Every structure is written in structure tokens, then in C-alpha cells.
Amino acid sequence: MTAVADRAVVLDGATVPSREVVGNKGRSIAWMLSLGLPVPPALCLPIEECRRFHAAGEELDPDAWASVLSGIGRLEEVLGREFGGGDQPLLVSVRSGAAVSMPGMMDTVLNLGISDEVEAALARLSGDADFARQTHCRFVHQYGEIVLRADLDEPGPDATPAEVREAVRKDTGSAVPTDPHEQLRAVIKTVFGSWSSRRAKAYRRHWGISEDGGTAVIIQAMVFGNLGADSGTGVLFSRNPLSGEPEPYGEWLPRGQGEDVVSGSHDPLPLSALADSLPAAHERLLAAATLLEREHGDIQDVEFTVERGELFLLQTRSAKRSPLAAVRAAVDLAAEGAIDRAEAIQRVTPEQLASVLAPRVAEQVAAGAEVVAEGIAACPGVATGVAVDDSDAACEAEGDVVLTRPTTSPEDVSGMIAARAVVTERGGSTSHAAVVTRALGRPSVVGVGEGATAELVGEELTVDGSAGVVYRGALPTEDVDPASVPGLTELLEWVRELSPAEVDAATAPVDALRAAQEELKPEGSKQEEGTS
Amino acid sequence: MSSATDTELLALHGLAVKKAGTPAAVAAVVGAEEAEVEASLEAAVAAGRAAGAKGTFMVAPAGREWLDEQYPEAFAEFRADPAATETYERFERINRELLALFTDWQMVPTAGGERIPNDHADHEYDTAVIDRLGDQHERAERVLDSFAELEPRLGLYKERLDSAYDKALAGEREWVSGARIDSYHTVWFELHEDLLRMLGREREEAP
What we know:
By secondary structure, chain A is of the alpha+beta class. Helices cover 41% and strands 20% of the residues of chain A. Chain A contains 20 helices and 23 strands. In chain A, α16 links the parallel β17 and β18. In chain A, α5 (129-146) packs parallel to α6 (161-172). By secondary structure, chain B is mainly α. Chain B has 10 helices and 5 strands. Chains A and B meet through α8, α14, α17 and α18 of A and α1, α6, β4, β5 and α7 of B.
């Protein structure tokens, strides 16, 4: 950490300041840099400055602003770029970073520092005028929504910055500044101001968090994944988060910007494509993932960008994983010595274990059964019942029923509660039926196609909400053989050893896990270090 | 609303939005006195437009048909008002964001476009979703203010949404998308249904 004019700090990893000083995100950046990992250089206005800002009646202290400017100068030096102009323009992201994350704080503003002139330079640099224009539009849109609180439609792919500016002006009566320094100053004030937003205050009141804290401002250089064939963006999981296999798993999008991967608007390539085209960056990425996994003692989900052959890590966090992967990774990490058995047991939730052990339709039974409808698996689980197409009928039925509807509306909720499973013809994974069945824990398959359920009424059906398949008849389910799930035998054995005697781990493994977790005090977990 | 000052129409409309409910629940939707709503629902039962048992009422098929006949005239002014249509477009925009948000709340994205049930163990993740809910809630408040200028009753949804949001913010997770309570999702869908009926539109299913 290097102090600039006493106020801002450049996060360079020389030291790792505490989260009370630079916030959670600031600390993470410094921590990754201290491990020698490649992270885009960043600057931080510490939490102290937020308190000063509010004490001064929401005014940015002149010394703080001066130190931001000299800090930006340091980023320019390190990167050989220029903020607000030049042939090699420096764009930055600006985000809030309190010691504890909370709703109501300002979201990230990306691509700050762009103007018509910078857009032209970016177009020359990338050889992609559309990208430069869209980057400019995205910034104006984001500034409008976040700083000026405009309510806007997403700009289309052909929108111009002038059009987006005009939309913001029309909605708010205010203009988005064209001067990058003015943009930066306003966004910093918005970050500090968001500490006392209505929502942030309400959250702190509910959770008993002190009003005396504040948020830091993190200003980080943007890196670009679309500056040519040796650039791109992707995500890397330090091991497979679906199967739990101890192999890195990732996606790579050549010439892609971060949002392209997240939004799913482009089809990414497997990680092997990165290994083929940019072996040095690939090797460095895998080494970084191994290091981060070891430091955290858990599967890491790493967002990265390669800019003209140079790797940058943008974020790392503990990976979201399937129940199968949770079991396998916990046992493997313990076997590798990264965590102990007590910690491994803490890593699998009772819900995950219950899901892994849930009875399922045996493969050979499913193979021989008649599939009467297929759609989107909206809520996992298997259930059987007689199909009814009316919510009142579902409520009045004596036995188990499956509710089949073209689509559902609020008036179907009572029928969905009464049914064992739900099938709809229209709608996808965000439809009313999908949201409500998940809230109720009813297996569901949605979007099986117009008219596909009409002939099923009165038939007995088995709905597999995990596979998105509806079978004719009541199919038998079978218990899971622990030997068929990697890691499960070991995990159940450890649970049996560590759970209290009065719980029968053989017949009630989920209860035993819960009891074992109660007994085990969570140790000072390494996960604390994480970025998010 | 032009000629729909008729409490029976309003009470039956409120009941249709909820499908079934007590006079108190219907009164909360339509913003009328509970006793008045109860009397109207009793009258609807007598006319064969509703059924009632143990203080809970349901719309009868004949009541549905009757409502469909009444709507065009009852809400003629609302339907013809360009401000209502324009505000509904803004509502739809928030609706799309909220549906994605409810799904993110319930199912967490992981590798390869797969999703897994949210076990709510990751505080950061949940906080980020609640933060997005707050953004959409603020947008929704502005839309409901606009609707309330045209139809004051619709302003009531603001209080119900605010109550659900506030509980979600306080960590009572079921108030985001719980199906058996007046969660944010439940109230939002009732509002959607209410607007669709008033405007005479069909629901477009979410992807």
C-alpha cells in the first residue's frame, strides 16, 4: 500500500490493509496482488474519506480529490496509458467497498473516462469502431441510471452515445458530463453518498450495523478482452463445479468483454482453446487457480481477461456447485490435506446431502418408460400423480395429482400447493409456474409445448423435475447406492464418526450430518479471505 | 375508473385477482371498507357469481363471465388513456427484471449455464440479489405513483410491496418469493393480474 498525498492509497500488494480501512473489495485486490497474482492496478479512497465527506455536508475534500488525481497519475505510469485522452486511453471502473457488503450501496460504474475523443482512440486501438461506440453507450447508460437515477431501456446494439445522453436528459433533466474528470468526481460522490441511501440505512437498522462506518471507493483500471486475436475473457473453476472432478473447468471467449460471458450472448469455447492459442496465459491462469484454491481451501470461480496476451484476474470467489460436486470436492480436498475432515463435513449442507440421496427413477426404468412430454426442468425432484388441468380439481382431488396447465397465474397457486408436481405448456425458467413451484418445493417441468398436456388429463404421470421429463404411469423410484457417488461413502463414514450416538447415521444420514455440524464449531475458515 | 364505482364489481374484481380470499384480503387489494366488501361478496354469492364458505370467498364461473362482460365498460377510461398504456410498458420492463431476479434468488448460476438451488449460505450473493430487488422496488414505486394518479386504488400495492421488501431486507428470506404469503413475488403477480384485467390484456409468458 502506497499513500498518495496522504489520502488515497494505491493497492499494490506491498501490504494488505484491513477491511476496516479499505473495505472488503479493496482488501481482496491488495491480497491477490500480495500473492503475486496479476490484477489490474487499483486505487482506493479509504472509508475514512467517506466519514469526512458526510461530516463536510456531502462535499468531497479538496485534498482527497487531489490525491485521487495523483493516484490516477500512478495508474497511468504503471500502464503507460492516459486518463481522458491520448492514443492509449485509460478507462477505469469505480465501485463501492464497505467492510461488510450491504444493499443500497452504489453499483459499479464501468468504462469511466470515455468521451468522443477517447471513443475514437479506442476504435483505432481495437480496430473495432462498434465496440468503442457500444462501450461509450454503456458508460453513458450506466452513469445515467446510477448517478442520475434515470429509468432507461437498455441501449440497442446500434445506439449512439448522443442518443443515450438524450434519453438520460429527457428522463432526468440532467446531462451526463463529457469531461472524464468531472465524471470521476461525480461517481466518487455518488459512492460516498450511497452510504446514507434510504436502503442502506434501512439495512443497517435491521441488522444492527453501526452508522459510523462508511464505504471506500475502489478505482480500478479496465482491461479489454477484445483488443485482437490474443485477447479474450473467461471464467475458470479450479475444479469441475458440476461433477466435482479435480480437474480445472472453464470457458474462454476470444475477443470477448466480461459482460459477453456473463450475459450468455456469445457461445464460449472450452478452456483447451485458450491452451492452444495462448499457452503462456493458460499456464499462468492454472497456476493462479491452484494457488487461490490452496489459499482458500475451496473450489474457486475465477473471472479473468487476457489483454494482448497478458493475463489479468478480475475476481475470485468460492464456486457455486452442484450437490454432487459439493460431496466430492469436500472429500477430495480433505484427502489432499487442504482441509481436515471436520471442515469437509461443514462444506456439505444438509440440503445438498438430501438432494444427493433423493430417490430417483432408475435409469433402466426410465429407458423403458414412455415419455409423454419434455420441457425445461424448473424445480428438481420426482413425483407421481393423476393429471388434472384445473386448479379447483387439484384442490378437491382425493389422491395425488399432477397439475397440468397451459400457463399459471396467481389463481393457480392453491392448485399448485395441492398438487404433487406441476407441468406447464408455455413459459420458461423464470415463469410464474417455475418461481412458485420452487418456492413450494414441487417438482415441475415447464414449456412442454402448446397443447402437449391436453391428452394427458386423467392419466397417471411421473414428473421428473430434475431431468425435465414427464413419463406415462407411476414409475418406481430407487434409493441411491452410496458407492455410485464419488466421495459419498467416505463422507457418510466421517459423519457417522463425528455425529452424536443418539442419531442413527445409517438410516438418517441427513439428520446425522446436521447433528455433526452442530457439534463441530466452525474453525477460523480460510474462506474469509475471499473476493466477491 | 369511470362507472366501476360499483363496489360489487370492484369486490369481485379484487377476488378474481386473488382467486380466493377473505373480505379483509380483498379489501386490501381494492381499498374499500371490509364490511362493504363483505356485503358485496355476499350479494355476489346470492347472484351466483361467487361461492363462499367459512368467511373465504371464491369467484364462480358465472362471476368470471360477468366480470369479462363488465370490464370493457368499467375500465373504458383507463384502457383508452395513453398514460395507462405507457405506464404499463414501464411496468413490463420491471417485470422482466424481477422475474429474472426471482429465479436468481431461487437458483444460483454455476458453470456451463447450469443452475443449482440457492441454499442461502452465501451472504454476499443473497445481499447482491436483495440489492437488485431494492433497485427494482424503487423503479416500481415510481410506476405505481403514476398508476395511482390514474387509479388511486393501485397505489395500495406500493404499501404491500414495501412491506414485503422491508422484511426481505431484514433477512426474512421467504418474503422474496414465498408462495403462501404476501411475498414480493405474490404481490407483484397480483398487481400484474390486476393490470391485465383492467387493460384487457393477455399474459405473455416469461422465457
